[in-house]
């Protein structure tokens, strides 16, 4: 497949860097949403604003418009201090586009512009909804858009997503059916012992010893409860206890995350955590309670839509450049909410080597502008293939 001639690549790179320099956090993407709406209007698209506060939907129709699909990009940044020194680095302390949402937004704008300018020449019949979503990072903007009527107001038969992926070379993509990103659940374990003087530990129940036993025991949940071919992660990320060096505190709190790819595994892990808490509480004479907070569900690609994406990627990049057996990620993605409502596919577009600070959520990360034309080509070809 011959790559599309995209004469406005310099403009796209400028837009991407402008968004990077002005990062905005979840549900506060006011400047970004205004930029997106302005560009879509300039391209001649129908524009709808305000879904989930800062969400923007661009609508392009051709022919009968009877069939419709959605293409989604995320717009929010992370609460992270950038450590780059290039001219387009973040101008807002403590905020940074460290996941490439600036690039995703720009790619989708580029696809909207190309499809609008060349709709007469392209072979498709239907409606394309360009979904610019707020608050992907931990705040579930996709769920809010759905709750506020995304699929009711803009009915579509399938929805598609794309994420840049450091570690996959430029010019390659990863496409696979089934689970591609894990579901995420946080947990909080409260430990109550009996406080006492640190020099007289026999007079109390040591919450820190109990907490330490819990941290070690939780590492057995996956290793000794799941089938070796199943996947999950249990990580303790916080321990809070005590205020003085000579006092064993009454209370301690442990927090962390559970990642899994299906509800059955999640249930098994939660019950195993509860059993360990009950057993360790009994063994040490403490009181332990655990609370689970379910966040994003697993991101699960549909078979038919994944095959359509694979065929487009193969025609665009070549069969040896499309990874169909890439391991799923234990990271989470709120595009999962959209895939629970509609069939679709979420693909990874190679962003280049993951070394040298290029990894996601890293203070030295920057989106690779070399992949802007690849992303635009993919979206445009996918529209023509599916519609």
Give unreliable regions as ranges: none
- Return the string of H and E elements: HHEEEHEHHEEEEEHHEEEHEEHEHEH
Under CATH, the topology of the largest domain can be stated as Aminopeptidase
Can you tell me the overall shape?
Answer: elongated
Query: N-to-C terminal Cα separation, in Å?
Result: 18 Å
Task: Say which CATH homologous superfamily of the largest domain is assigned.
Answer: Zn peptidases
Report strand order across the widest sheet.
1-2-4-3-5-16-6-15
State the secondary-structure class.
alpha/beta
Strand content: 25-35%
Largest sheet: 8 strands, mixed
Helix content: 25-40%
How many domains is the backbone divided into? 2
CATH first level of the largest domain: Alpha Beta
Oligomer: single chain
List keywords for this structure.
Alpha-Beta Plaits; 34% helix; alpha/beta; eight-stranded mixed sheet; Aminopeptidase; 387 residues; 11 helices
What does this structure look like?
- It is a single chain.
- This protein is an alpha/beta fold and about 375 residues long.
- The chain folds into two domains: about 10-180 and about 300-385, Aminopeptidase, CATH 3.40.630; about 185-295, Alpha-Beta Plaits, CATH 3.30.70.
- It has eleven helices and 16 strands.
- The protein has helices at about 10-20, 30-40, 100-115, 140-145, 150-155, 205-220, 220-225, 265-285, 305-315, 335-340, 370-385, and strands spanning about 45-50, 55-60, 70-75, 125-135, 160-165, 175, 180, 185-190, 195, 230-240, 245-250, 250-260, 285-295, 300, 320-325, 345-350.
- Strands 1-2-4-3-5-16-6-15 form an eight-stranded mixed β-sheet, with helices on both faces. It has a four-stranded antiparallel β-sheet with strand order 10-12-8-13.
- Strand 3 (about 70-75), helix 3 (about 100-115) and strand 4 (about 125-135) form a beta-alpha-beta unit.
- Helix 3 packs across helix 11 (about 370-385) and helix 9 (about 305-315) crosses helix 11 (about 370-385).
- The radius of gyration is 24 Å and the shape is elongated.
- The chain starts with 8 loop residues before the first helix and ends with a helix.
């Amino acid at each position: 497949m011959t790559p599309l001639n995209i004469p406005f690549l310099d403009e796209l790179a400028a837009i991407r860097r402008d968004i990077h320099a002005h990062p905005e956090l979840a549900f506060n993407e006011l400047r970004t949403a205004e930029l997106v709406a302005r560009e879509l209007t300039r391209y001649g698209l129908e524009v709808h604003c305000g879904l989930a506060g800062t969400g923007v939907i661009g609508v392009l129709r051709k022919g009968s418009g009877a069939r419709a699909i959605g293409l989604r990009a995320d717009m929010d940044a992370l609460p992270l201090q950038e450590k780059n020194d290039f001219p387009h680095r973040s101008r807002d302390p403590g905020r940074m586009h460290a996941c490439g949402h600036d690039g995703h937004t720009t790619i989708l704008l580029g696809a909207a512009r190309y499809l609008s300018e060349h709709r007469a020449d392209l072979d498709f019949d239907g409606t394309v909804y360009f979904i610019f979503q707020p608050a992907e990072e931990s705040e579930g903007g996709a769920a809010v858009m759905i709750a506020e009527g995304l699929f009711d107001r803009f009915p579509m038969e399938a929805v598609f997503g794309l994420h840049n992926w450091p570690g996959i070379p430029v010019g390659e993509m990863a496409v696979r059916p089934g689970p591609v990103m894990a579901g995420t659940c946080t947990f909080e374990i409260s430990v109550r012992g009996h406080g006492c003087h640190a020099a007289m530990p026999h007079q109390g129940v040591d919450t820190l010893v109990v907490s330490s036993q819990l941290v070690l025991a939780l590492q057995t949940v996956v290793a000794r409860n799941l089938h070796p071919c199943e996947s999950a992660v249990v990580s303790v990320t916080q321990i809070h206890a005590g205020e003085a060096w000579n006092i064993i505190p009454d209370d301690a709190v442990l927090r962390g995350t559970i990642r899994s790819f299906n509800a059955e595994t999640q249930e098994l892990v939660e019950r195993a955590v509860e059993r360990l808490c009950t057993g360790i509480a009994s063994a040490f004479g403490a009181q332990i309670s655990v609370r689970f907070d379910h966040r994003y569900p697993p991101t699960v690609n549909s078979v038919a839509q994944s095959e359509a994406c694979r065929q487009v990627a193969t025609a665009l990049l070549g069969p040896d450049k499309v990874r169909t057996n890439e391991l799923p990620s234990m990271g989470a993605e709120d595009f999962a909410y959209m895939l629970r409502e509609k069939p679709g596919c979420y693909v990874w577009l190679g962003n280049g080597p993951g070394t040298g600070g290029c990894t996601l959520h890293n203070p030295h990360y920057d989106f690779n502008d070399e992949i802007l034309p690849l992303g635009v080509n993919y979206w445009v070809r996918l529209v023509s293939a599916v519609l």
